[in-house]
Write a structure and sequence with these properties.
This protein is mainly beta. The chain is 8% helix and 42% strand. Strands 1-9-6-11-4 form a 5-stranded antiparallel β-sheet, with no helix packed on it. Strands 8-7-10-5-12 form a 5-stranded antiparallel β-sheet. A two-stranded antiparallel ribbon has the order 2-3. The N and C termini lie far apart (36 Å).
Length: 156
């Protein structure tokens, strides 16, 4: 099954600052032999959910992400292992968070360059998105990302 272009006509996202990358914490309820973690839009997920996907890594120190989104916000949750999140702007600034359990997540707004480093094996990342997949949402080249942010900063 191929990826579909989103029927959603998103509004251009404003320029996000690195200070808008937030570390989130979710409630957990331990019981003998298990732990329940709650993810709920409107309660502890700060974005509506239009898409969810997972990325599994079976090799330590592999990289993922390496792109930005024009309008999609994401919440990244480490379900297994250790995953380092790096968010970058076009001026050389960056924010790093090491995710080690499902109680923590990172909110990544649009217009931020995101990278993930799977530090242990196995590692499993779950990502909540507020827009369905759309190929033209992705900026996969850092020079194009820089130009996009500079245009937004200039008011375009």
């Amino acid at each position: 099954m191929g990826a579909q272009i989103s029927p959603v006509s998103p509004k251009p996202a404003p320029l996000a600052g690195l200070d808008q990358i937030r570390l989130l914490n979710f409630p957990q309820f331990p019981a003998p032999g298990r732990v329940l973690t709650i993810f709920e839009t409107g309660a502890n997920l700060p974005i509506p959910i239009a898409r969810v996907f997972t990325v599994a890594s079976n090799q330590a120190d592999t990289a993922g992400g390496g792109h930005a989104h024009r309008w999609c916000s994401q919440v990244l949750v480490c379900l297994q292992g250790e995953i380092e999140f790096v968010g970058r702007d076009h001026l050389g600034g960056e924010v790093r968070h090491l995710l080690t359990h499902s109680q923590q997540a990172v909110l990544m707004p649009p217009t931020i360059w995101g990278e993930q480093y799977y530090r242990t094996t196995p590692a499993l990342l779950m990502v909540f998105c507020d827009y369905p997949f759309a190929a033209d949402d992705y900026i996969r080249d850092f020079d194009s990302f820089r130009a996009h942010r500079e245009a937004l900063a200039a008011g375009g």
